[in-house]
Amino acid sequence: MIYPIVKFGDPVLDKPAAEVTSFDDDLKKLIEDMFESMYAARGVGLAAPQIGLSKRIAVVDVTFKENPDDKLVLINPVIVNKEGRQRGSEGCLSIPEFREDVTRAKIVTVRAQDLTGKFFEHTGEDLLARAFLHETDHLNGKLYISHVSALKRDLIKRKIKKMVKAGEW
Fold this sequence. Notes:
By secondary structure, the chain is of the alpha+beta class. It has helices at residues 25-40, 127-139, 150-165; strands at residues 45-47, 57-60, 72-83, 86-91, 99-104, 107-113, 119-125. A hairpin with a 7-residue loop joins β4 (86-91) and β5.
């Protein structure tokens, strides 16, 4: 099932998501649906709050289906290490049509649980590091625009407000 993507302004995006405690068939189905929803929206990462569910779950595939082995499921993820810096253009499925340069760590290690509840650590560089940070931000109630200047953030919010008034959002 393809879920619609929740857009900026929805309260589910502004609050920390709830920890996942049940690792059952419903969770496996949700993960499948999240990958399907992410691919349909042409994204490389998707957090559960982006489909309206306050759960600490994110899916990531920076290869966008090119290498099925690179699909990652992050349940209750925590960033345990960050190194270096990179600056690059970042967008978000919940804030479509907007992109901004964001500075993030270049190398990131995340500790999370898999579909069975088993803990693991995974280290990513460049785009994968950016995806880890972006998706865990979602799970903590933050959006990438919190990492840009107040001036740029306000400009984006004003443009979105206009789009909402015009019925385009």
